[in-house]
């Protein structure tokens, strides 16, 4: 905590609030070439460091992030572990450098450090990694003209596609995901296409001790077509190979293929997000046949003060219907973002039906609040409940009950200035008849967190 406070004090002194900032989820997507003509402030001198006398597109850009979060779980796993109140503190720090070596070549490198303190049952796999290379890749523009562009990216890199349903950088948890491999990025007009082959790593908590898989375990293509006035159309193929995957159906090697599409539009007026995917492949000596479909429809009242939005979302995600039929029906969310169905890390996008109304409103230009209610059922009573990562949480225990429970959520987001943001959230989870059936003396869950983030 002392490290974080020191960083905040230095930042307040060195970075004036009037400086322009353009931070993005993926920091390597930022471009500061325009800063060469801006006023010489300390901040701008970090974002644009010329590497030649003529300046232009040969420059170095530096940046980073400090994030601190307080978390309080009460009755984690609905009392099954008997932990009760479990407050803890997590921190994350990153620094990065972006070398632009001309109009066609750039190198991006980023270090991260993530820590957990105080959790009774120790850090989760998403909490702690003391020091690691988060990104280190080279981009080469093989084709670059007014009509089209083809970029080859090789090395360690973060991935994030669509709504984060299947491939996400996972910004919510303390540890963001990364992969090692090769990606081709093509763009022409309103069409974009990425093709990639990647290797995931085994995460350990020490310094530079993560282990590369040494074999391709994620590959695919993600494509986007912008349809003027109508919205955005995405279609994708994703493949994975994993050893010792665990489902209620069993444990074994898994090769899975996903074909899917998404059609969406955000902005004023009607909002919609439709997505569906089908999975096939092999698990153990059997086959895979799984699917998901999601609809999120809403409306933004852009001419009303606060621009309130109301939305209704409904998800269907398959589970396994028969353990002994040689066919696995459990959907695999691959590499999803955490907390996709609320803050509770005990329910994820596997074997699930949910109905999710929610609403947002801007209290000011800097403050946004949101309220949600999520009703959760098991899709198949022959399958259990899975966590957001896709790992098995609770087996079905032959229970015939479907209803898992109801989550009530509220969140508050405050953009303090161009460099600092603060958000806090609370979730109360009322257990349903399925949890009541299989956990003796189960308890409702309460989750509270507060996070402050500084970026430069």
TrEMBL record:
Residue ranges annotated for the Alginate export domain, each copy included? 59-437
InterPro entries named among the record's database cross-references = Alginate_export_dom (IPR025388)
Which superkingdom?
Bacteria
What protein is this chain from? Alginate export
What is the source species?
A: Chryseobacterium oranimense
